[in-house]
Design brief:
Blueprint lengths: L1 H18 L1 E6 L3 E7 L4 E8 L4 E7 L6 E7 L4 E3 L6 H16 L12 E6 L2
Antiparallel strand pairs: 1-2, 1-7, 2-3, 4-5, 5-6
């Protein structure tokens, strides 16, 4: 049993470092987050879009500055685990703010959505 647990851990680690990506989908009333390992998906989180706050979490302690995306509402939180460039995260933050935060847009159609994908480099 221990062998299979260790094997699964290393398989997950290998997949994340080679083909892993994070998928964020912006629907009209919700935002969903999924970690995709190519063979399977996990860490599915879905939050309501009421009173959301979008933030950039910067890490300036290394030579190349990187950022992570944080989306939260009153009681739920999505935080990406992959580091991306601050420019890319700022673009995503602006898109999310344009869709949800500015003027509190209320759309009723759930047929279309916006998808952002962060790849492991």
């Amino acid at each position: 049993m221990i062998f299979w647990s260790v094997a699964f851990f290393f398989l997950k680690l290998f997949l994340w470092n080679t083909v892993g990506r994070e998928i964020i989908k912006l629907y009209h009333h919700k935002i969903s987050y999924t970690s995709d390992y190519k063979l399977y998906k996990c860490n599915y989180i879905e939050i309501n879009c009421d009173n959301i706050v979008v933030e950039m979490k910067n890490d300036l302690s290394i030579l190349n500055p990187v950022s992570r995306l944080v989306i939260k509402n009153n009681n739920q939180k999505i935080e990406t685990s992959l580091n991306s460039s601050p420019v890319e995260i700022a673009f995503v933050c602006k898109k999310i703010n344009d869709k949800y935060c500015i003027a509190n847009k209320k759309n009723t159609d759930d047929s279309d959505f916006i998808t952002f994908e962060f790849f492991n480099n």
